[in-house]
Structures are given as structure tokens and as C-alpha cells.
């Protein structure tokens, strides 16, 4: 082309799963777009088209099985390309293992469907970037990350994860659609080339939000209109003699770019959509975390059962996703066509339902229906996971050498744990006192909570179990437990903390750490819950200083002690906000250094409201760290120094303050550090004062995709927060483990059978590890019949020696990538922030 500048066009359509309508509608529209692209590419070897996610291709192949061969040929010719992920998910919102499964499931389905692979991932409309994504994608065989938003003139760089993993990230100039090429690309070619460090430019000409094939949304004469891509490029080539516009393969363009001058960037992009999932969909967000944790539990325990030759045989007479009522009606769920057979297939199917619900759009046209669908999918996945987990634990109980009616406590995490357990025992006399005893005759008092029993037990082995006998008797009381109560305050005290609660306005007078001898808070509004006017439409939150509508301090009905036992003392604050009842439970835990805060809001769904609760500790904290998917993020560490580039969405200030926190955060100072764990993720951190901290409990606003749909969060809403304090940094004290223990509590089961055939001792570990790591996955292999996969990750910045062993079988161990292919990584070392996968076989 001589001296012409090449502007390569990535032809695609942004295949939203929930934005244009119900998922069935979106899948069908996406299938039509793909079919048009396949027909066009088959007739014209110069035509290229990108499909963003595997779910749409999977649906298309099912709808058009006769096109399978031509589709495969077009992929091999690179006329068709596809992103590796199964769905276009929110990186900042979902847990690390969900992000892993999204790409590994997508790649596996690609292989099963067409026998092909891909080395790109595409997230055109991605609102934020998580810093561990480079490691996840690198270890899944993805080398190029294509995205838009974030850089006005585009960008190209090596994106480095929290470890040393790097992939090439390419940010499309301006946007994936909805822009004017003549007005926003051509006049800024110099700036774009400098930003992407290349002479050739790759721009996105997506049809945009399931628009017709071969179209592009452009703003002409101040109005949005859909233009034909082919006609537009023909026009531009004729008008600009020094430019060459051409539809091309993304990988071909990126491979030909010189990478020698690329800068290495690390850090995160916080969500540009504010608190899109966790505050707009409180129950759905919490359910999302529960589904993942229970699926992981089901995988772990069913795999252990198989190794012990007591396999779990799970089946369902009908697909549990299927509608059970009506007169022969049928929901339009493509996934109902799936027919799992084995236990492994059922777990795989449940993961699939979870991934489907994690598509990035919340709301859109038919938002009420799609939210219902998400809930149905997640509840079905949870049902399957719980069934398989319970069946597995029953089988394990049956072969453990313990008396009938013993309590067997299971620990799925890879460290020895001591914690409070809950169990049901129908044969106990409520007029008598009971204790648990282990084989060393350690005694643990049982507390009767009317509907269930609880006890504090110690030293449950790493990824293992321990049996306890139930006997009559009295346990010892906890020393140094004191209560002082006056007309206007309650003081609770144990060996760890002293807390004073104001009975007039329901806030804390102070929290004292008695071990460290310091105050953690003396703010009169600590735990105050406030309601603000929020006139935002969906994610477009622009207003920072919102009008205060109401405060929980104004409506306190009672502040009283409701429980006091050897495990905890609990205070209940009953109050209101916006005429909605609040029950705020504060529990001073006596058996470990912890304060639990559990608000319950009975919410009628008041529109245009944002509700926040204050956690404004007073210490002079220098640094704040918070959990992100499979990693830890230091507050203020950005991928780019430039300000937010998404002027239609969240404001600059809120972008700096809002964070999606994956389970825990830590405020670190010289005198003390504080860890706050939670089942909620929407936090507001005032970046001028690091310790000005609030949690955004909910937002009730209109959907940006369909303003007739509201996110109202109606019903009983519950949150769980845990506070602990210590000297030193978060990683030295392993404070991050508290959230994992909340997600994966000790599981207590009653042994219902006699000891016939028992082969396991009364206590033991199934799998043990050494080193700085959290064992998240132990499962059957997806590819190799007799293999098992272990996944651990180092949540700290410290390297350590690593050792994995099993007490129930001998394994050969080999490192592998996320797709279970052999890798050259060391087996015996775990590096800072490393996500390590291992393949085991007998």
C-alpha cells in the first residue's frame, strides 16, 4: 500500500447476554448475527468477524449443526475469531475461581465443539480490570487481551499481574462502537499511534449491543445512527487517499506489531460502573459467592470419596432447572437441553449455570425477567452443589471410626482451624447440659440456641475432619467476661476488647483493643446507617454529595442484650430508616479476637435511595489493602495515571472512591491494623482520608437499559461483617483467612450409622500443604480420567517453599496450566501472588 497508513477494522458485534432482552432473545439475535457473518465470510475471503464469547457460538452451532464444518474452516482461516471466555463477565465483582472457570470452560467447549483453540480474550464493554487477570489468562493460554474504555486514544502495553505474568493488552481507541471515525479517529492518528506504539491501527467497528451484522453505530450531525460498515469503509478509502481502511483478523494485526518498545503496566481499573452488582442486587451478589463456595466444596468432597472408593452417585429424575408447575408450559432456557449423567457432569453443569449468570449486564430490556432467570440459575446450581456435598459428607461419616451420633466436623481449608460450629441433634434433652469431647478428652460446652446447637471446637485438621462425642456435662465458662449497663449505654468486655454502645442513638461510643492498649474508634457515628437521595440511572452515578434523607440514629426503638453465653455476648439494636425496620446485631466473640456486625434490613424497595453504613475507624492508617479475585490490591494502585475515560458513567471522584472488595480489607498503621471481612463488596473509601470508610449496603435506582425497570432490593436483606485488630501488616497476621473461614465454615455432621466398615481414624487430613497458600480447588480432572487437579494461590507477597501431600493415597505430582497441560513451573516453590495448579495421579 505504499506510504499509506493502515487502519485495520475489527468487525464484530457486542453480543450482550441480557441487555437487549431476555437471554433467550439475546441468544437468538446473536445467532442471526453470527449466521450472517458466516454466510458473508464463506462468500468473501476478505471478510473477517470476531465473536466475543463462546456461549453465543455454542448456541449457534446447536441451532445450525449443518454449518459446523464451514464454521470450523473459517476459524482455521482466521476469517472467524473468538474470545476465550464463556461469558463476558465483570472482573471486579466475581471471585477468582469463577474467572478461572470462565476461560477454562470456554476453551474446553471450543475444543469439544470444533477442535479449535484461541489465544485472545475480548471484553469490549468491560467496566473494570482486575490485576490478577493477566496471570489467569496467561496460564489459560491467552496472549492478547482486547478491551475498550480507559484510554481516550487507545493503548497497547504488557499488562503484568500481581506475579510476573504478562500478556499484551490492546485498548481500542475511543470505544468499541458509538463514535465517529472521521471525527474521533482520523484527526487523532498521531496521538493514537503514539499511544499504541505502532504505525498500524486496530479499531473496533462493532455492531454494538446485538445490532445488525455489518453495521456500526456512529454519531453523525449530532445524532446516533447505524451505518453499514462495508459502505463506510469504501467511502473512507475513496475520501482519504493516504489511508487504507481494511477489515482484518485481530490476531494477524497484533502479531505484526513490534513489541520491543512496549511498556509494562500493572495495577487495576476500578469499576467504571460504580457498584453495579453488589449494591444493586444484594441477594444475587451474596448468592453468587455462596454458589461458588458450595460448588468448590462439592468438588472437593466428592473427589475425596472417589479416592476412598466410596464414589458419590448423584442423579436427578428431571432437570432441576425445569419449571415444575403450570399446564405443560416451558421456560425458554437453552440450558434445559443439557442432560448430565455422572456426578462430575452435574457439577460441570452447575458451574455452567453459574457462569451464565455472571455476564456483565444487570438490567436491560426485560430486566425483571433476566434477574429472575439469574436467580433461578444460581439457585439450581446451589441445589446441585449442596446435594452432592451432603451426599459426600454422609459417605465420609460412614467410614470414620466414631460412635453413632457423634459430631464429625469437616474443614475444607488447608490450615488447622478452631471455630464455632452449628449442628442439629434431635435426641438431646433441652433441660440438660451437654458437652463435646474429642479422643484426647478435651471438653467443649454445647450452647443451646433453641432451634440448633453450637460449640467452639479446636484443632480441626487441615482439609480434614475430627470426631466428637456428645456427653452430659458442664463446660468451663470464659474468664474476664463482663457486662456493664446504664440508662444510656452498654459496655461489653472480655480479654480482647471493650466496646461501649450508645443506647440512645444505637452507635458505638468506642472500641478499645485491650491487648494493644489503643482505641480503634471514638466516633459518635460509627455504625450509623444513612439513607441518601440517589437519582442515578443505573450505573451512571454522577452526583457525589447526595442529599441526606434519613438516619438510623433518629429512630432507635431499643438497645438490649439478647444473648450471653460462653461463646459470645450479643446486643440487638432495633431501629428504622425510611420507615423500614433494622435489626443490628453486635456480637463480642469470647473464644477468639473478633467482633461480628450483622445488620438485617426489612426493605420495601424505596426508589431513588442509597443506603450506607459507616466504618470510620480513628487510627492513623497509612495504607489500605483489599482482596481482589485471587489476589490483594493496594488502594490507589492504578493501571494508568490518566483519569477515568467513561464520561457517560461514574464521576471522577466516585471512581477514585468506590471499590468492589472481594471479602476483606485491611487498614494498616504503626500502632495497629484492622481487618474488616464481609459478605458484601460495595465500599466507599474517601481518598483524601483513608480511614473515612463506608459500606454501600444498597442502591435502588432505575436500570440504564430500561428505565421502566427498577433495582429495588425488596425483602429481608442481611449482611455479615467481622472486625479484628492486630499489630503489623495484614500478611504477617494472616488476617485474610477470616473471610475464607466465613465462606467455608466448619461443617458439622451427625454420624447416623454404626462403625461397620469404618476405615478412617477419628481425626485426620485428606490433603495437607506447606507454604504461603490457600488451597481453593481439589477436583476430578476435566481431561484425564484418573487425574485430579489441585489449585492453590499465594495471597501474600512472600515466596515460600511449597509441599503437597496426602494421607489417604500416594500421588504423582506435576505442575500444569489452567487447561491442565503440563508446565515447567517448579513444584516445590510458591511465588508471591502465584496461582499454582497441579495435576495428581495415583
TrEMBL record:
Ranges where the Glycoside hydrolase family 38 N-terminal domain occurs: 6-241
Upper lineage: Bacteria, Bacillati, Bacillota, Clostridia, Thermoanaerobacterales
GO biological process, one term: mannose metabolic process
A GO term, aspect molecular function: alpha-mannosidase activity
Organism: Caldanaerobius fijiensis DSM 17918
Residues forming coiled coils: none
Pfam families: Glyco_hydro38C2 (PF17677), Glyco_hydro_38N (PF01074)
Protein name: Alpha-mannosidase
Signal peptide (from-to): none
InterPro entries cross-referenced by the UniProt entry: Gal_mutarotase_sf_dom, GH38_C, Glyco_hydro/deAcase_b/a-brl, Glyco_hydro_38_N, Glyco_hydro_38_N_sf
Start and end residues of each Glycosyl hydrolases family 38 C-terminal domain: 772-838
The organism's place on the tree of life at top rank: Bacteria
